[in-house]
Amino acid sequence: MQPLQLSILGFCLVALCQSCQDTASSSTTAKDWWETAQFYQIYPRSFMDSDGDGIGDLNGITSKLEYLRDLGVTAAWLSPIFKSPMVDFGYDISDFYDIQPEYGTLEDFRNLIKKANELGLKIILDFVPNHSSDENEWFKKSVKREKGYEDYYVWHDGKVNASTGEREPPSNWLQAFRGSAWEWVEERQQYYLHQFAVQQADLNYRNPDVVAQMKRVLRYWLDEGVAGFRCDAVPVLFEVEPDENGQYADEAVSGLTDDVDARNYLKSELIENRPETIDMAYQWRTVMDDYQRIHGGDTRVLLIETYAPPAYTMQFYGNRSVEGAHIPFNFNLITVPASSGVSAGSIKTAVDNWLLNMPAGRTANWVIGNHDQRRAASRYGTKNTDAMNMLVMVLPGASVTYQGEELGMTDGWISWEDTQDPAACNSNQNTYEQFTRDPSRTPFHWTSGTNAGFSTALKTWLPLATNYQELNVELELTESNSHLKIYKALVEMRKVSKTLQNGSTKYGVLNEDVFVVKRHLSGSPSIIYVANLGSSSISVDLREFDKTLTSPLTLELGSQSSTKAVGASFDTKNLELLEGESLIFTSN
Question: Has 305 been annotated as catalytic?
Fold first, then answer.
């Protein structure tokens, strides 16, 4: 879902090298599959269309699983595939136990799981716990106050304006897609809460029946063979309880914008990041662990979406007495450069925010894009495509790739007439581009042919990005030094390198523009990542970053823009870097 709040940032500078951090001790302890996994997010609607209707589907995904295997992907996470009116393209679920017909059938899903298992791939589903569609049977029964469903959603009588006598919403809370978070239902004579679109009614997690129902959803899909879940929009699961008079408090004005309909016009202290939400994640983890204990097999993984301050986010990992999410998603590499600009310093801040706050013994993860953000290559700059893909592979822990990042796909331009995203449709023709998420959801580029090989339809659900003939799988597999081939080499390096799997991590900034990472493990070659994120060529002395680095360094991999020869040796004292050049070395 659309992020609702950015992380709190911290920043520290020390001398020439900005507080080079050395984190975690080396370990050779065997890691579980997810701890060094390469997760790959598929947006099903835009991945591959098998039936020519212009919309991606399950059989299309199944037909391309060999591509994921050849990439070296560990697990594919599918954005929602459940039955839905598609107001928010699957995040408004009308039946949590069935497949959206335009994506296929339950039998198609079972075939996908079967083939994925044969190829050694794991499938993770998007779990959308906060809300359902207003077309869900649960909501329809709740509107009618049917027994057992009366309090399935967050209902309230609202308030009566003392001056006008008119009924008003219970509070001033705002939804993510502009306007009031409350909607009046004439039949029930009450308002319901919707933190997203009007058609996405918030479930009431203070009702034990709702909690039990959503756990049944998890177990149902675990029975179908999924390897775990990515949990959507978790921070908004609970809101503050009403006061002693049964009234909800208003949020204070944030001062961030003058747009009174925008979510961030108000603070979100009452409707996000509540302590009860953390406990619910712990309960879901128990469902995962109990399932494995009973049925055996590999760990079923729990991934949590949260755009929240570190002090809150880190609680999702669990504590001394209870386990929480295996991986709370780390969006710092997205949020920090978005607010501070793309630079070596902002990248260091992003890494600091996670590694310096993460509880001991937990697993880090690194994300540079998803379906809610503009594409990574468009945000970081196309020259930094390889640098960012390298970074998430070199840093410790798991990494997450959004479909197309391995190709260097950029945003497609979507006209107002072709706009689909409700976040944009709720605005207007003059402002929609501030809110739209459509540009990162354009169809995947398979070939240089019609519709980029995505579909045989006359028209695809979103127009393709215009550069698909220059950036596509077919072409990049034939090029000697494409983004795709660099990506595949990175994944392979990550799989075979004990240093990348178990080594300690040191990182820092040189000469303001260069970000450096060193991974070290006793008895194995060290891995050194160097990236020039500045706007001009530069020469650096790597000994200012780490005095123990000795020449020569052997180049293992270079970015597409690099002219340096793989296998060549380089001096640590005077390393010349082109604008946008990123390199990975080994050192003994």
Answer: yes
